[in-house]
Write a structure and sequence with these properties.
Length: 377
């Protein structure tokens, strides 16, 4: 199957970095790994399949030699917005839902990022980083909470299309019952820390858990999907507590639609099972695609075998460079078409059913789930 004609609704991604931040080989290479170690960026990334294939594919597109030096020179010769438009158009990405909470001083913002893309961009509200700002600003827990709840209540009206939690990175997915008194004790010590340092990292479990319950309640009230990071990420995530099976009490008690991000990799079987079992659980494929590279078809074959195809959604989880969006889209279409071809030849799906499945995964399921007024073209 060729899936290039089916548009992608990229329901989970992040803003780009200014091109100056990725001009050298190492600063470009570092985004082909989840590792934050300079030695890995410099010495080992060039030996990964993701990077090697990325350089080959980009060189084909640019018409240059397949080396990092030639690719960097060729892409630097194209104005950045033009390069970005070219990649997004070629990847046939028709909409991006963007979490701006993952950003640095070099990142484009909600006002500057959309101009770089040829498609609409809608914002996602990242809970923990937003609440960190409130800890710095408010001495009293009750005041911070009031602002947080007011923002959550207005989220959909303010144009947010989803909420997003990175609690897996902070205190893990084994969410305890809401404990307001425990949350307040944690808040007070974090505010004191914020006063000393001018900033703070929210990782106190009673507070993280309490905020997530509040967010789930608001997500349910507004029919706003709640994206939850599950499984792997950078080394900040402790995989032992990032298994989505920990989420069972939340899944069972909330009426919110929960989008379990990253296939929960390496717990993709567990994630597929949860999506198959609970009507309010959705399975996102991002990050595992593209990072699993040649392993993508095996993952997809298992997930498609277990979970309902109406619950599976492709996304890039790309950030930093338009090249990563393009590469993730290419790896995703490659893996999906390979698996669907197998399912057709084995007699499990007709060609038309396979096409319908691809449409569902690449955009229709997300289009149905998220409050996107205009849809995609
Ligand atoms: Zn992400």
């Amino acid at each position: 199957m060729n899936l290039n004609h089916i548009p992608i609704l990229d329901h989970h991604a992040h803003p780009l970095l200014r091109p100056e931040a990725v001009q050298t080989a190492v600063s470009f290479q570092q985004w082909f790994t989840e590792s934050t170690h300079p030695a890995t960026h410099q010495h080992h990334v060039p030996h990964s399949l993701f990077f090697r294939t990325g350089i080959k594919w980009l060189a084909e597109l640019l018409g240059c030699e397949a080396t990092i030096t030639a690719v960097l020179a060729a892409r630097a010769a194209v104005p950045y917005a033009e390069w970005s438009h070219r990649l997004f158009n070629d990847a046939n990405i028709s909409m991006v839902l963007c979490d701006y909470g993952y950003s640095t001083a070099d990142s484009y913002t909600p006002t500057t990022f959309p101009a770089l893309l040829p498609c609409p961009v809608h914002p996602i509200l990242r809970l923990e980083t937003y609440f960190q700002e409130l800890i710095v600003a408010h001495p009293r827990f009750d005041n911070a909470l009031e602002v947080f709840v007011t923002t959550l209540r207005r989220a959909r009206a303010d144009g947010y299309v989803a909420l997003k939690s990175i609690i897996a990175y902070r205190s893990g997915l084994d969410i305890a019952p809401a404990d307001k008194a425990g949350a307040e004790v944690a808040y007070n010590s974090l505010h004191a820390e914020a006063q000393r340092n001018g900033r703070v990292r929210l990782a106190a479990k009673p507070l993280c858990d309490y905020l997530l319950w509040l967010a789930a309640e608001e997500a349910a009230r507004q029919s706003l999907p709640l994206q939850i990071h599950t499984g792997f990420g950078d080394e900040d995530a402790d995989l032992r507590t990032a298994n989505p099976l920990h989420l069972r009490p939340l899944i069972a008690q909330t009426k919110a639609n929960l989008v379990l991000l990253h296939m929960g990799w390496p717990f993709s079987r567990e994630t597929a099972h949860l999506a198959a079992l609970y009507p309010n659980v959705w399975l996102d494929l991002s990050l595992a695609i593209p990072f699993a590279t040649t392993g993508i078809p095996a993952l997809l074959r298992e997930v498609l075998g277990m979970a309902h195809h109406s619950k599976i959604m492709f996304a890039t989880d790309a950030f930093t460079m338009p090249d990563i969006f393009w590469l993730a889209a290419r790896w995703g279409r490659w893996g999906l078409s390979k698996v669907l071809d197998e399912l057709i030849s084995e007699g499990f799906l007709s060609a038309q059913e396979a096409e319908e499945t691809a449409v569902s995964i690449l955009h229709r399921n997300a289009q149905t789930l998220y409050p996107i007024s205009k849809g995609i073209n």
